[in-house]
Write a structure and sequence with these properties.
The protein has five helices and eight strands, in the order E-E-H-H-E-H-E-H-E-E-E-E-H. It has helices spanning 26-30, 33-36, 53-67, 79-87, 149-152, and strands at 4-10, 13-22, 40-51, 71-75, 96-97, 99-105, 112-118, 144-145. It folds into two domains: 1-97, STAS domain (Transcription Regulator spoIIAA, 2-Layer Sandwich), CATH 3.30.750; 102-158, no CATH class. The protein has 158 residues and is of the alpha/beta class. Helices cover 23% and strands 33% of the residues.
């Protein structure tokens, strides 16, 4: 799915929501926003489907230019985005990560669900802190975190 964006404003912050794939077509979508976005930008990754190597390069260029003159926050980072953040420090530049999704699976009913970790609420302060138990939204049994916690939350230690 080709990416598209939506901008919403809440007080001093503009939320830049990206939907679809971040890929070889993303540069033409992202570049115009370097001139139009305000000084405080929240980037919402909640609807990003996939990201490929060309998309990573375009994103690094975009976020580097954006962070040069703005305060930037990342919210609703998907597991694919977290993977890039943990592998490539320049993927965030100076952006603050305020919330991330993590995948959980229920061993009882095999339901898979995403759970949102929010800074200052339930996001671990250090990668080795561990995560809270999450109940399955279908059967209410306890689910299992589907990543190695210390690896998944490595970004909080940077």
């Amino acid at each position: 799915m080709q990416g598209f964006t939506e901008i919403t404003v809440d007080g001093e912050w503009e939320t830049f929501s990206y939907t679809g794939n971040i890929d070889e077509n993303s540069e033409e979508i992202l570049t115009p926003y370097l001139k139009s976005l305000g000084q405080n930008v929240i980037i919402n990754f909640g609807n990003v489907d996939k990201i490929n190597s060309c998309g990573v390069l375009h994103w690094i260029n975009f976020i580097g230019a954006l962070c040069a003159s703005r305060q930037v926050r990342y919210e609703k980072c998907t597991p694919d985005i977290i993977q890039q953040i943990n592998m490539i420090p320049r993927f965030t530049n100076t952006a603050e990560i305020v919330s991330v999704y993590a995948r959980y699976v229920c061993a009882h009913c095999e339901h898979e669900q995403m759970y949102l970790f929010v800074k200052g609420k339930n996001l671990p302060l250090a990668a080795q802190d561990g995560v809270s138990e999450v109940a399955c939204s279908k059967c209410r049994k306890i689910t299992s975190f589907q990543e190695v916690e210390e690896d998944y939350f490595a970004f909080v230690d940077r």
